[in-house]
Design a protein that fits this description.
Distance between the termini: 108 Å
Low-confidence stretches: 2-7, 42-55, 617-636
Bound molecules: ligand C2E, calcium ion
Helix content: 40-55%
Mean pLDDT: 86
Number of helices: 22
Number of strands: 25
Largest sheet: 8 strands, mixed, barrel
Strand content: 15-25%
Strand order of the largest sheet: 15-16-19-20-21-22-23-24
């Protein structure tokens, strides 16, 4: 028997009551082998073909035990099994008085050991082979030899059966191994199926609300559209002031609001429709077979449930939602087109003052068409360098001169004419041109600033460009190539850029400041940031949006905000710039409110670098004429 690399001896048991017979056995296994021919012939008989036929009798690896009684044989077999070293063969006499006979012995032995080969050796035929096979079978483990036997028969049998027994063991081990492997494979299969189902669920659902996600929604709606059982409506819902909740109460509160909102929307979802969370605070519903009027009624219902107060962390919260509806009643359109139409309708709902719904109308698509026209032309303008920068000074009231200049983009297109940046910069953001455009601005602003003898250039950085990894390397490269010290650069970023990903923003800001670039927060007051969370960012300057300056004198809140921003900024050591200053009265009011830096048409329109009257290195006018603080506008 072979276990791993170790070969154990094979065991054979002989049971015969006649001492003479036992002696013959002993002789048989002790004396030399039978001739090879004889062995081969017998082996071929036994194993039908004789592959397994041994070529010579060799008993060195076989261990023999001899007993004279059936009970002893049974006991030996039992011990061997218990020791884990069972017998391969039992040579069994049929009559062994006074104890149990061979038939009974074979019966008991077989009960103990189902693998042992039993060789019935008898001179009498008092038990039919069939009878013995019944109790000691199977027949392929039962053999018969008649007395008196030929030595070679016994030798051959002993050796062949021992070999076969060893083969069987190896085979069983191999079977077992395969079976074990199969069990493992089966188990792994079950686990795989379970995790596949889980993965599938995860890949199709939103983890926060457990609602289907965008992919799931797309598949479902596509199916509805393909089977064409009836008109399909897509309702796109967007919360109106979700960002406020996130910013003022934290993300945990935002998550809680999303969950509660999902529950409310679920309860309004008609049978057979699919409600999904597409991302952020955007949800979508796909319904089949309802009229446009019914879709509008449903949208109305959704707006209504969102307008009801929420209780988030023991605080009452009001949000409200806008809904855009698209139905495919008239033409066959795909999912993405449906979503685009619903999105345009949603945009219209938001423009209509929020907290309402709009049904898609073809006119809404025009703005999208204009957008894509602008996009095409803008790509062309970037290619042909058909853009310019103009610069508007930032005036320091105390020194009465320009401290720096804000770079503002200008674009005159052959087809579209003058396109204001407020129109094309957002298009660039949407179509993935933000970084390309931003890099164009940095390149040109840095090059032009390098021709001025003093003053910094303040560059507007769009939210997407601000997220870009290449921002810092780009500005460093451009500054180095024009020998412009980095402290002559300021970046203007908006609250949107800062609060979309505040941790990343804080990191980028720290990096930029560490190389000397100043950071200004642009359009302060139009977004969501409060003075309190501004403390989390290392800023140099806050630019108060021109809408506050405009309403100075009319709106008491505007002056209150300006007063507190200036006070807070002073405490934090920040500069405050008032944007869009147009009149002497505004200058006066701002001065009283504590604001010392200004920018606006009152002082100067934005000018091309070459037209700027001050600071040109080539002009050698280093001591520039001081700008008249609040006295006299430079340009009207
Ligand atoms: P902004 O950053 O708030 O820029 C100030 C805007 O106010 C400029 O408009 C400027 O011309 C205008 N302005 C200056 N003084 C006055 C004034 O006294 N009264 C009024 N009513 N307006 C004044 P502009 O150049 O049309 O730019 C609009 C916006 O487009 C900018 O707002 C900025 O958000 C964006 N923008 C402009 N250039 C760039 C740029 O290079 N990159 C990026 N990302 N955005 C830019
Ligand atoms: Ca700006
Ligand atoms: Ca601004």
């Amino acid at each position: 028997m072979t276990i791993g690399t170790m070969t154990l001896s094979t065991r054979i048991l002989i049971a015969d009551d006649e001492p003479q017979m036992l002696a013959s056995y002993r002789d048989c296994f002790a004396i030399g082998p039978a001739s090879n021919d004889e062995l081969a012939a017998l082996g071929a008989d036994l194993f039908a073909g004789g592959n397994e036929a041994p070529t010579a009798a060799d008993f060195s690896n076989i261990c023999f035990d001899y007993v004279s009684q059936g009970e002893h044989a049974v006991a030996k077999v039992a011990d061997a099994i218990n020791e884990g070293d069972p017998y391969a063969v039992l040579f069994l006499d049929m009559r062994m008085p006074p104890g149990i006979d061979g038939y009974e012995t074979a019966t008991r032995v077989r009960q103990l050991d189902k693998n042992i080969n039993i060789v019935v050796v008898t001179g009498y035929s008092d038990h039919s082979p069939m009878g013995i096979a019944k109790v000691a079978g199977p027949i392929d483990r039962l053999f018969y030899v008649t007395k008196p036997f030929k030595t070679s028969d016994i030798q051959q049998l002993a050796q062949s059966l021992a070999a076969r027994w060893n083969h069987d063991i190896a085979l069983r081990a191999a079977h077992q191994e395969v079976e074990n492997k199969l069990t493992v494979i089966e188990k792994v299969n079950v686990q795989l199926a379970a995790s596949e189902a889980r993965c599938r669920h995860i890949s199709l659902h939103d983890h926060l609300t457990r609602l289907p996600n965008r992919t799931h929604f797309g598949d479902f709606t596509e199916n509805l559209l393909l089977r064409g059982k009836g008109p399909v409506s897509v309702l796109l819902l967007d919360l109106d002031h979700f960002k406020n909740v996130n910013d003022t109460m934290g993300h945990a509160a935002g998550d809680e609001l999303m969950r509660q909102l999902a529950d409310r929307l679920r309860s309004e979802t008609p049978e057979g429709a699919l409600l999904a969370r597409l991302g952020g605070d955007e949800f979508a519903l796909a319904v089949e077979g309802i009229t446009e009027a019914a879709a509008q009624k449903l949208a109305n219902q959704l707006v209504k449930v969102c307008a009801k107060e929420f209780e988030i962390m023991s605080t009452r919260v009001f949000v409200g939602a806008s809904v855009g509806i698209a139905t495919n009643t008239t033409e066959s359109i795909g999912v993405s087109q449906m979503l685009r139409c619903a999105d345009l309708a949603l945009y219209a709902a938001k423009n209509a003052g929020r907290n309402t719904w709009r049904l898609f109308a073809p006119e809404m698509d025009e703005s999208a068409q204009t957008r894509s026209h602008i996009e095409r032309r803008l790509r062309e303008a970037l290619k042909t360098d058909n853009l310019r920068l103009v610069y508007q000074p930032v005036i320091d009231l105390v020194g009465g001169s320009a401290l720096g200049y804000e770079a503002l983009l200008r674009w005159t297109d052959d087809e579209l004419g003058d396109v204001p940046p407020a129109l094309f910069v957002p298009v660039a953001e949407q179509c993935g041109l933000a970084s390309t455009l931003g890099e164009w601005v940095i390149r040109n602003a840095v090059a032009e600033c390098a021709t001025w003898s003093t003053g910094y250039v303040s560059i507007n950085i769009s939210p997407h460009h601000f997220q870009s990894r290449d921002l810092i390397s780009c500005v460093m490269r451009e500054a180095a190539s024009h020998d412009l010290p980095l402290n002559r650069l300021q970046f203007e970023i908006t609250e949107t850029a800062m609060f979309t990903n505040p941790l990343h923003a804080a990191e980028v800001i720290t990096q930029l400041r560490s190389v000397g670039i100043r950071i200004a927060l642009d359009d302060f007051g139009t977004g969501y940031s409060s003075l309190v969370n501004l403390r989390d960012f290392e800023l140099d300057c806050i630019k108060i949006d021109k809408s506050f300056i405009e309403t100075l004198g009319e709106d008491r809140q505007a002056s209150a905000i300006i007063t507190s921003v200036t006070a807070m900024a002073r405490m934090l050591g920040l500069n405050v710039v008032a944007e869009g200053v147009e009149t002497a009265a505004q200058v006066q009011a701002l001065r009283l409110l504590g604001c010392g830096m200004m920018q606006g048409f009152y002082y100067s329109l934005p000018l091309a670098s070459a037209e700027m009257p001050y600071h040109h290195v080539s002009d050698e006018v280093v001591d520039s004429e001081p700008l008249p603080g609040d006295a006299k506008p430079l340009a009207a």
